[in-house]
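To: structure desk
From: M.T.
Subject: fold request, one chain
Message: Could you run this one when you get a chance? Sequence is below, nothing fancy, just the single chain.
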Amino acid sequence: MTQNHFAALKLSRLLLEILSKEGYSDPTPVQKRLIPVLLSGTNTTVSAQTGSGKTLAFLLPAFEKMIPATLPPVHHYPKLFVLSPTKELAQQIYEVSRPFSRALGLRGVLLQGGGKRQEETRKLKQGVDVIVATPQRALEHIEAKHIDIKAVRHFVVDEADMMFDMGFVSYLEKIFGMLSTGAQKVVVSATITPRVVKLAKSYIQPLRRIELDPPGMIAETITQHLYPVVKSKKEALLSWLISTREIKKALVFVRKKELADGVAESLQSWGYKVGILHGERMHGERKRALLAFREGRISMLVATDIAARGLDIPDLDVVINYDIPHVKHDFIHRVGRTGRAGKEGVAMTLVSPDEIEQLHDLHKVLGSKIKEVILPEFAPKEVKARGYLIQAPQRRRGRTKPNATKRGDIVLNKKGKKRKTTKRDGFKLLDAKKKSSKKRR
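Reply: Done. Structure tokens follow.
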């Protein structure tokens, strides 16, 4: 059996056996940092780049403390409660947790919009130890008194910054206010924003903050390419990239759901098996598309930024940004779907002239990590020779020069060149001389 280096984190033999069985042998940096902190019972906010293993990092300490002393538990009540902003993320966290729940004799339930609410209620009334839920559905069950929120020992908010973007702040505030003071609280995201920190400090005291990577950090294993393109030629460039680069599996991101449907239709007309993932699709349709993509039954998945956060798709070599997202950090999350857990990945970004302003803003976050590739048959005329000016102009530091400066009795304009003096200049000089003579007296 391969040596399991999780043993250095002081986890029990039972958990180490489950980890080995599930194929985990080496903890990631965030797991090395976060697991000991959470085992000590500390309330924490943690930020680390996408694909770094945060889910296992917050699940393992909770399960360690939930191991039955002797026999499997007879009475089940909620001990671990995880909130996640989307159904897809909640489903993924639930699947990661299931092997540990089964091995420890614990019961788990997934609560999400679009799910079978009566079935959820039945399971909750029978008793559960682990709850993974989306915020709105969680609050519905709490207010219906199907969940004893005061019994929760470990409460985790995953992808906290996305919760703000999706308008879940009021849900979070209500649930935080209902928890017992003794519950361990953990706030997790790839990008912890000041708003998230402010909310966390309002409800979590004391609070320890762990930040493994600065905001805007993209894994070094990801190679990024930028393709300037005329807007009307984007679909043609997409087809060219997939065929000439021999891409077998790609996740294509777009900003709008209408565009997702159009791009998917084009890919299907070119002979590719395609799935679609956006907020207007039924839950069952989204679930089937994601499962088919993970299992390799379809080669292309076209999605809005609903799929940018947290989703772990095995062997995803290429992410294609059909356009630049409205929110800068969504780009980081999009790209983070590839190059996960130390594997190599490629991210391709198609940029038309109308997106140059967003590109400048994005470059402030990413620096010079994107390599520009000019394809003359697709690039706009104005960038074929020199490419996009990715680096936005830098403001000069120091004091701003006044409109006119004086060097002796010579009046200079703001370019430093001599200009014709006026009567006004003469009076100013006379007044200045009078003031200086009075001071000397």
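Reply (cont.): The two ends are 94 Å apart (CA to CA). Let me know if you need anything else for the meeting.
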